[in-house]
């Protein structure tokens, strides 16, 4: 049996994948979508969850990350995106402060219980964070603490352009100091103008050389999220292979 055939026969992930970013707006939801589609086409049954969503009214809002993922994954077409969202707050802020604005603070114990339930009930789980690693989810829990609580492997999403080396290396350092090892690093093409190819190459080289973790690939611009290009799905496949130790 070939390695490709073994991939498709694999029924589960050894640990949840937790999609986090070097900043807000870097493409975490797009990468989550690609991971879901790539996992489904391998014959797995992944569950997507967004423990904390801010900047939207409810799970059905046009700004809801869960609604976006569910809308563009054929296998989820008949499912309710509300099942994926733990807490949803209107203000586009860190969850701690968005919850306080609504006088609806989230207790760390409740958040950790939610993560434990997700971990226990889904053999193939894709979690998406809010903002970057050091964003406060509660008064005493950062996003990175949730990765540890879920016993998950983070997928670090970063822009492909100028400044990404600094942001990516700082994020990797924040994880490794807490004993967390990324399953992969993914660059996402950003901005209206393409990043020059030599700069992208230099960024990838610097990140790999200084962190010891290679960039799994670059997600190109996607015009139709109902039909992502194969080049984008290949990046997700590379992350999944790394998580499976292939």
UniProtKB/TrEMBL annotation:
Domain of life where this protein originates: Bacteria
The record lists the catalysed reaction(s) as: (7R,8S)-7,8-diammoniononanoate + CO2 + ATP = (4R,5S)-dethiobiotin + ADP + phosphate + 3 H(+); (7R,8S)-8-amino-7-(carboxyamino)nonanoate + ATP = (4R,5S)-dethiobiotin + ADP + phosphate + H(+)
The record's listing under InterPro entries reads: DTB_synth_BioD, P-loop_NTPase
Which cofactor does this sequence's record say it needs?
Mg(2+)
Keywords in alphabetical order, please: ATP-binding, Biotin biosynthesis, Cytoplasm, Ligase, Magnesium, Metal-binding, Nucleotide-binding
Single annotated GO MF: ATP binding
Pfam family, any one:
AAA_26
| Protein's cellular compartments | Cytoplasm
Q: What is the top EC class of this enzyme, as a single word?
A: ligase
Gene3D superfamilies per the UniProt record, alphabetical: P-loop containing nucleotide triphosphate hydrolases
Q: In which pathway does it act?
A: Cofactor biosynthesis; biotin biosynthesis; biotin from 7,8-diaminononanoate: step 1/2
Chain residues that bind substrate: 54
Any idea which positions bind ATP? 25-30, 65, 128-131, 220-222
Could you give one GO CC term from the UniProt record? Answer: cytosol
Q: What does the record give as the active site?
A: 50
List GO BP terms, alphabetically: biotin biosynthetic process
Q: Specify which residues bind Mg(2+) according to the UniProt entry for this protein.
A: 29, 65, 128
Entry EC no(s): 6.3.3.3
User: How is the subunit organization of this protein annotated in UniProt?
Assistant: Homodimer.
Function statement: Catalyzes a mechanistically unusual reaction, the ATP-dependent insertion of CO2 between the N7 and N8 nitrogen atoms of 7,8-diaminopelargonic acid (DAPA, also called 7,8-diammoniononanoate) to form a ureido ring.
Write the protein's name: ATP-dependent dethiobiotin synthetase BioD
Q: Which source organism does the UniProt entry give?
A: Nitratidesulfovibrio vulgaris (strain ATCC 29579 / DSM 644 / CCUG 34227 / NCIMB 8303 / VKM B-1760 / Hildenborough) (Desulfovibrio vulgaris)
Name the gene: bioD
